Amino acid sequence: MRKAIRLALPVVAAATALALTGCNDDEEGAFGSVGGSSGGSEESSTEDPGSTTGGEETGDAGTTGGDTGSTTDGGSGGEVTTGPTIEELDGDWYESATVDTTNFEIDAATGEVLFYSSFDPNATDYCTGSYADGTFTLNDCQSYGGSWSDMSATVTEFDGENLTVTWSGGQTATMRNLATGGFSEAEQAEIGRIIEEYNAG
C-alpha cells in the first residue's frame, strides 16, 4: 500500500496551519559559523634589556607565542562544512506546485526524512531516509511506477527558505519551504489539492 503523505490539511487553512509546522526561528548563518576563536589570545613578549650578553641576544623573545591558534581556520567564515542542522530543515520542501515536484518531508523531532519523487499516483517513488552533516541518505525506496535511483543528495545552498541539493547522479534541485518559502496561497492550495488526490489514489 502506498504511503500517504503527512500533509492532509483543508486547503483553505493551508497558509495558516502549515506555518505552524514549517517555520523556523532565525538562527545564525545558513550553515552556522565555522572555526570560531583562534585558540586563545597572544601574549606579547617583552625583551629584557639585560638579556643580551657581550652583544649577543639570548634568544628570539618574540617568537614563542606568535603562532598560537594557527591550526584552526578562524577566517573561513561562510565556508560550507557540515551543512544546516536538521532543526533548520524541519518542514516540507517542494520544487514547485505541480504534480511532478519532488518533495522532502523532514521531521527534526524524530529525525525522520521522507522523499517523494513525484505526486503522480501511477509514477512515483516513496523513500525513507536520514539527514546528517549536509547529506540526505535514502535507505529504502518503494516504487509505484517510478524509476528513482539516486540514493543520496548533498546540500549545496540553504538560506532558511530555499534549499538546493545536488543528487549523487549530478542532478540539482532547488526546493522551497511550504510555509516560509514564498509559495502563494494559490500555490499552497494547489499543493494541497495534489496531495489529496495522491492520498486518494
Task: Record the SSE blueprint.
Elements: H1 14-22, E1 52-53, E2 56-57, H2 86-89, E3 91-94, E4 103-107, E5 112-116, E6 124-132, E7 135-144, E8 152-158, E9 162-167, E10 172-177, H3 185-200
Antiparallel strand pairs: 1-2, 3-4, 3-10, 4-5, 5-6, 6-7, 7-8, 8-9, 9-10
Textual characterization of the structure:
The chain starts with 13 loop residues before the first helix and ends with a helix. The strands form two sheets. It has an eight-stranded antiparallel beta barrel with strand order 3-4-5-6-7-8-9-10. It has a domain at 87-200: Lipocalin, CATH 2.40.128. Mean pLDDT is 74; it is low at 8-80. With 201 residues, the chain is α+β, with helices and mostly antiparallel strands. Helices cover 14% and strands 28% of the residues. The protein has three helices and ten strands; from the N terminus they run H-E-E-H-E-E-E-E-E-E-E-E-H.
Question: Nutshell version of this structure?
Answer:
With 201 residues, the chain is of the alpha+beta class. The protein has helices at residues 14-22, 86-89, 185-200; strands at residues 52-53, 56-57, 91-94, 103-107, 112-116, 124-132, 135-144, 152-158, 162-167, 172-177.
Share of residues in helices: 10-25%
Oligomer: single chain
Biggest sheet: strand arrangement = 3-4-5-6-7-8-9-10
The major pleated sheet works out as:
8 strands, antiparallel, barrel
Classify the fold: give the CATH topology of the domain at 87-200.
Lipocalin
| Overall body shape | globular
User: For the record, what CATH class of the domain at 87-200 applies?
Assistant: Mainly Beta
Strand content: 25-35%
- Work out the number of β strands: 10
Terminal CA distance reads: 11 Å
Region (Disordered): 24-91
Biased composition (Gly residues): 62-80
Organism: Streptomyces millisiae
Biased composition (Low complexity): 40-55
